[in-house]
Design brief:
This protein is of the alpha/beta class. It is built from 10 helices and 6 strands, in the order ααβαββαβαβαβαααα. The protein has a 6-stranded mixed β-sheet with strand order 2-3-1-4-5-6, with helices on both faces. Helix 1 packs antiparallel against helix 2, helix 2 crosses helix 4 and helix 2 crosses helix 10. It is elongated.
Length: 273
């Protein structure tokens, strides 16, 4: 069986290069790790979220300044999960950080945690655009909108902001959950189960568990990618054949018109002589 030349495919069809890159990654993947990546704008709590999920408070760097400038990973062999921390979007003027993040979530991620801080308010247009772009590459079941820093809003503020965000994402049909890593780690340190429950981290972990326990998820994605790419290539073939037929028709018409013009010219010459 001939190997697929993924490099040539990506160069030939740049409009679907991310889908091709994902298929290439899945085809070459040698381990069974389930990749979960965090994605979102700078300083919205991505690294803190991952620290809470892996249960190590300071594994991923957390600071007010930009610290994650390339993808960082933590592998939990016992659970079969690779956690991927990506740089904050729009934090790097040259866009190099964004390219690392996009590569992780489009090529490597089985599941994406799109992180937004509630203390900022509702989603901005850039975040909505990021979500819509993700949905052209992943299914809605592969994305969870994680709303962080719930503890930094008063109850009435939270209700207003959350209602606005729900309205913003109602058409994209992705799951969402509000969490507080601060409450979670305080609950752990104080052995306070109430604080841990109020953080909603247990609920998020259950949502993740339901995904990575689904053994056919990656196989289904692989099969769907092949179908999507084949469908795209078939449509491109039809488009090229249609354009070829139109060009041939145009050439035949030009040839007929040329013959008629020559015939008319010859008739005029004969009439004059």
């Amino acid at each position: 069986m001939n190997k697929i030349n993924f490099t040539a495919l990506k160069q030939k069809f740049p409009e679907i290069d991310k889908k091709i890159a994902r298929l290439e990654y899945l085809s070459a993947k040698e381990n069974d790790l389930f990749n979960i990546a965090v994605y979102g704008k700078y300083n919205h709590g991505k690294s803190s979220l991952l620290n809470a999920l892996i249960g190590i408070e300071n594994h991923f760097k957390v600071a007010d300044c930009r610290t994650t400038i390339k993808n960082d990973v933590f592998i939990d062999e016992s659970a079969g999960i690779q956690w991927i921390d990506t740089p904050g979007l729009n934090a790097d003027i040259e866009g190099e950080d964004d390219s690392h993040a996009v590569d992780a979530i489009t090529r490597e991620a089985n599941l994406i945690l799109f992180v937004h801080s509630l203390r900022i308010g509702e989603l901005d247009q850039a975040e909505i655009d990021y979500l819509n772009e993700l949905l052209t590459l992943k299914s809605a079941s592969q994305i969870i909108l994680v709303l962080t820093q719930q503890d930094q809003l008063r109850a009435e503020q939270f209700e207003i902001v959350y209602a606005r965000i729900e309205q913003q994402v109602q058409d994209v049909k992705i799951r969402n959950i509000c969490i507080s890593t601060t409450r979670y780690f305080k609950g752990l340190s104080n052995n306070n189960s109430v604080q841990q429950d109020r953080s909603n981290m247990g609920q998020l972990q259950q949502m993740l568990h339901e995904n990575y326990e689904h053994s056919t998820l990656q196989r289904d994605e692989f099969d769907n990618l092949i179908k999507e790419i084949i469908h795209y290539l078939e449509n491109q073939k039809k488009y090229i054949e249609q354009k070829k037929a139109e060009k041939q028709q145009e050439l035949r018409k030009m040839h007929t018109n040329f013959q008629n013009d020559v015939k008319q010219m010859m008739n005029k010459i004969q009439q004059n002589f």
